[in-house]
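Reopening this one. Same input as before:
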Amino acid sequence: MTYEPNAQIAEFKRTLQLTRVKTSIHSTLALAGFLIFIVYGAYPLIKVISEKQKLITQTQEISIQLEKNLIELKKTSNIINNSEEFFKPFDNLMPSSPQLESYLHEIFIATSRSGFYIKNISAGEVVSERPGEVPILLQLNGIGELNVLVENIENLKRISTVNKLTAREDYGKTDVNLEVSIYFVPEEFKE
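Same output, byte for byte:
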């Protein structure tokens, strides 16, 4: 081998061209790999991150709204707790149990003020179709007026209604059969 400058230059040019081809192939493959990574990896990742960010902001808004609602609930609870003394009279109107003894005492007074006396009293059972209602059947006799009797019974402290009234006059006195319903708050409605 002899030293030929042209041959060495030609070989150098050929090596340079091969290197350029190898470099451009590697660069093209690297660029293609990067684009594939961007299209199939980074872009979906960015979409997921943006969706997660939206969910995070929505969650924060919901959390703020829940905190506001909790504050409102505490205020309302305080108002109700401070107002319990105003509800005490309602215990007399609709107690938590039938309390027939005290009610019958009131009925006795109301009927005697109306000019009637009680011959017989019977209390019915609480019917499942109408929880919180106790029917009471009264047999009365006297010389009073029926409208005063009904008014006195319906104006008692306890909430009560006259459901049925039958009367028969006999020798100047009136026999009255009266069906009255009294009301109370059953246990299942308290909670």
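So the earlier flakiness isn't reproducible anymore. For the record, The chain is about 60% helix and 20% strand.
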